[in-house]
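Researcher: Structure for this, please.
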Amino acid sequence: MKNVLFGITLFLVMFSIQSQEKKNKNAKYTFEVNGNCEQCQSRIQKAAYSVTGVKTANWNIETHQLSLILNEEKTNILEVKKAIAKVGHDSDEVKATAADYEKLHSCCKYERIK
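Model: Predicted structure, token format:
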């Protein structure tokens, strides 16, 4: 009986270890962030780097795409989007508040979709 219980316990432990989601230390993401100019680029990248776990952040002015490499053991993509929204820039999931958007310089104000 002890062997059967030990076998079942061992099976359950092995199954739970394999079912745990492994976090990626170099996860790559690309998503759109609204902005217009080099000031926007600097602000967006600085906001992304302010999140612990972000390794690289590069926002392209022409395409409005932010490319990131981040450590998923330390952060997630939603935290980066929240940090960017705090400085006034919208992304697909997280929109900046009206107050944060209004703080942007006039050349940085983009057309917002409501």
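Researcher: Any notable elements?
Model: The helical segments are 2-19, 38-49, 77-86, 98-102. Residues 2-19 form the longest helix (18 residues).
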